[in-house]
Amino acid sequence: MAPYRNHLPQLSNALFLTDGGIETTLIFREGLDLPEFAAFDLLKSETGYEALLNYFRTYVTLAKTYQVGLILESVTWRANPDWVTKLGYSSDDLVEINQKAIAQLHNIRQASETAQTPMVISGCVGPRGDGYIPANAMTAQQAQAYHQTQINAFRDADADLVTALTMNYVEEAIGVTLAAQAANMPVVISFTVETDGCLPTGQTLKEAIAQVDAVTNNAPAYYMINCAHPTHFANILTPGEAWLERIRGVRANASTKSHAELNESETLDDGNPAELGHQYRALKAKLKSLNVLGGCCGTDDRHVEAICQACLPLFWAHLSNPSLLTTSSSVSL
């Protein structure tokens, strides 16, 4: 059963949290081995499965404490044909892996959801290649064919929606969107950007969103930005521009380092959780639709809680006086 597929609750003005950087948390804080950065590999063992449950329970507790919604993102960012094969799984394992990941989230939701904390199950799609480098780029049609099996698995496992994280070129984002349309699934597209606020291809975020919308007839439910620090993209967000209304989610990195610097780093840069929270609050002043808040590389529950604490008063104020949401934050970016 996918109770939210036809009416995603995060399309309201309510605050929804996501988790943080699952891979960096499991590797650096929990000491777990994730070959090729693939969290789904933990599903193969009982201890790995339990580690993932414990990870998600942390965010369930956080969302219930603050009585906000929660997006449960499946551990399938790497669970596409190329990466599954690279890790030694067969092509026949692809559907089973993705459906098992969604089933895990159903169990969590069944045990924990409340009226104050709706929990939306999202099937996570990652890029075919490297998250930072758009090499061996596909056409939109090739990308649709490539991602269709994974997205169909999400549909059949009763995920509420599909979220494509760390999209680094527009044709793959279009392909994912078309595949979700073919499966009658709502879809969210999350682009990553470099320190200049542009996609790794050099295309502006504004142009990328406009291109996806034009080709797919505005099919994505909304857009997100992930795997970049707020200081990398805040300057491209000019208040009042209509395209910004399409951005509803941010999952930022803890570190201000560039993608190239992060790739070369052998230690975790977890930044400053409180400072990151205030930077999200400043983003909310620029992105009026922003209500899906979480983290990416280097972030964990400390960062997501700091983000929640910094931003939740804005949502409370909006309930009593919507005009308060337009006031400028004291934090500049």
TrEMBL record:
GO molecular function annotation: metal ion binding; methyltransferase activity
GO terms, biological process: methylation
Keyword Electron transport among record annotations: no
Taxonomic lineage from the root: Bacteria, Bacillati, Cyanobacteriota, Cyanophyceae, Oscillatoriophycideae
Known cofactor(s): Zn(2+)
Annotated ranges, domain Hcy-binding: 4-311
Coiled coil: none
Keywords, sorted A to Z: Metal-binding, Methyltransferase, Transferase, Zinc
Residues involved in Zn(2+) binding: 227, 296-297
InterPro entries: HCY_dom (IPR003726), HCY_dom_sf (IPR036589)
Protein name: Homocysteine S-methyltransferase
Organism: Oscillatoriales cyanobacterium SpSt-418
